[in-house]
Amino acid sequence: MSKVSALQASLEKSSGKPSTHIQAPSSTAIASMSGPQSVYKAPSREGKIHIGAYLHPDFKRSLRLVQAQTGEDVQTVVIRALNNLFSAHNVPVVDQK
Which residues, 6 or more positions from 46, have their beta carbon under 8 angstroms from its beta carbon? Predict the structure, then answer.
């Protein structure tokens, strides 16, 4: 009997509660848990991908100021900014309909 098992048995004996043994999950259960999981995706996000970046907080502040001035949501402001960047570099702009 290992040291941990002996300690567990002693604790159970002194508490007066019946022992409850927890079975370790089988290898098939572990394999099924580690497989790809279906995650809920909002219908508005279907066919879209997330693009993000870790930037200095001043970028967010300026983005929010533009949002306040234009009344547009952040996504629309970012779309417009990216399309302006694409135009400046002569690459196709994305038409949002």
Answer: none
